[in-house]
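Data availability (excerpt). The following record was deposited with the supplementary files.
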Amino acid sequence: MFEGLIDYAGLFPPAKLAMDPAVEEYLHERDGRFAPMLGRFIVPASRIDELLAVLTQPIPVSVIVDAGTDPRTWMANASSIGERLAALRSGETRISIDVLEVPLPPLLSLRESYDASIGQWAMIAERYGLRDLPAFVEIPRDARYAEQLPGAIAALARYGLGAKVRCGSVDGDAPSPETLARFIALSAEESVPFKATAGLHHPVRHYNGAAGYTMHGFLNVLAAAARAHDGIDEVERILAAENDAAFRALTPAEVAAGRARFISYGSCSFSEPVEDLIALGLLQQNA
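Predicted structure:
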């Protein structure tokens, strides 16, 4: 149900740990009671050398292709990163590059769509022998997000790529249940698996007084992914619920279907979601 669900994002806000303590925390949790829930260590491509310098044992990583936000330089930067990742895969044993996360730059003009940049990444991946790696492409959630999302998800399906969705941020910029429901429904319709990030520290949707906004719950997202073909209204209802009733109603087959769509999510804390699942009775503290 939860195997490999949480990719560790300790380098990112709000935790924003330095490399040493982030790696130490990851290794600690990998040896812990709930290690099967732990996925990969998330690292930007620009910080891989820093990671390699502190590693004492091999780890699996999800690499963010941080090629910048300038559309005019993005392809060249992404190509350089692709070349470096290919070299690392062939000669570096301290990390196993298992997943790629690819944030796209915003569009330059109203005439453009994301088909071009999605195709550019597919071409880069092909050139450097990276097509076998699961890659999750993130569409910028700007003023044109709603307009561009259907075409972008369809393009990802054509190229055999996954999608990535940002569910929150340190400044409270979380998508509405309606926006997130549309992303999940479109991804299911096109058979595009997705990865999530940001704002999913806790299992159930709730208002976080410290953060100052309502945060999505990862159980809500999992239940919504499992029921994605029940219609967008049902998906939105599940995402908006401030309880885990929809998740608890899932059958094992539905959970499996949900996980096939919702692959994992990045969290800067591993202990928080685990503690919450224990409090909900969905995990046992002791074997």
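Summary of structural features: The chain has one domain: 6-198+269-279.
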